[in-house]
Amino acid sequence: MLEVKNLVKSFGKTEVLKGISFSIKKGDVLSIIGSSGGGKTTLLRCLNFLEFAESGTIAVNGNVIYDGKEKDKMSDQYIREMRLHFGLVFQSFNLFPQYTVLKNITLAPTLLKTDTPENIEKKALELIEKVGLSSKINNYPCELSGGQQQRVAIARALALNPEILCFDEPTSALDPELTGEVLKVIKQLADQDMTLVIVTHEMSFAKEVSDYIIFMDNGVIAEQGTPQEVFEHPKSERLHAFLQNYQS
């Protein structure tokens, strides 16, 4: 479903992605782990057309939707359309503070006219129920806990029917007791065969929910494999040391 080939991205003279390649099938859950500064968030931002790699390609369902050599030829309209393949849930929620829970979720589909207003609201209400927030429909973000805000953010991302849903450290801004409620929603999505790409520091969660793990280090994929291969039989000293830090 998703194939990434040789993505290279620099900021100034600093090369952040140094030829990233991987592929996942429909319904797979891919977790990306690694130390801060390794390029994980930049990779997600490139997938979501928030950053643009200098070279490399991104293909969805066999169609190349991004080619670094052609990036200067992409129109704003094209970028907007290609973004719809992906949803992105940020670590800091990024909800609109002036809008209620319901309006946060219906805003983008309404602006993009993806359906009738009635159907958009009906789907939003279903998503709000799915993430367990039916009693908070008319609340504003400031009236919600961090875990509730992140669940609204997940519902908002789902409202545009993305083929691939990306999470950028979805629990890093949450207290430990709120982390579980967000991970539970993500696990439900995984159980429903949603295709997920998750950047996470929650190692036990990644081990439980993922079909495949990528360990990024200093802009490259240093190791990859099934959860069992990566967590129980790390090949490199770097991955071994990284996992030891999380277990200590």
Structural shape: globular
Order of helices and strands: EEEHEEHEHHHEHEHEEHH
Measured as a percent range, the helix fraction is: 25-40%
Spatial order of the strands forming the largest sheet: 6-7-8-3-9-10
> Which structural category do the helix and sheet elements fall into?
alpha/beta
Q: What's the gyration radius in Å?
A: 18 Å
Which oligomerization state do the chains in this entry correspond to?
A: single chain
Number of strands: 10
Look at the structure and give the mean pLDDT.
93
Strand residues, percent: 25-35%
Largest sheet: 6 strands, mixed
Instruction: Report how far the terminal alpha carbons are from each other.
Output: 37 Å
Number of helical segments with 4 or more residues: 9
Spans where pLDDT lies below 50 across 5 or more residues: none
Descriptive notes:
There is one protein chain. The chain is of the alpha/beta class and 248 residues long. 38% of the residues lie in helices and 25% in strands. The strands form two sheets. Strands 6-7-8-3-9-10 form a six-stranded mixed β-sheet, with helices on both faces. Strands 2-1-4-5 form a four-stranded antiparallel β-sheet, with helices on one face. Strand 9 (212-217) and strand 10 (220-225) form a beta hairpin. The termini are far apart.
Descriptive keywords:
about 250 residues; alpha/beta; 4-stranded antiparallel β-sheet; about 40% helix; globular
Secondary structure: elements and pairs:
Blueprint: E1 2-11, E2 14-24, E3 29-33, H1 40-47, E4 55-60, E5 63-67, H2 76-83, E6 86-89, H3 101-112, H4 117-130, H5 146-158, E7 164-168, H6 176-191, E8 195-199, H7 203-209, E9 212-217, E10 220-225, H8 227-232, H9 237-247
Parallel strand pairs: 3-8, 3-9, 6-7, 7-8
Antiparallel strand pairs: 1-2, 1-4, 4-5, 9-10
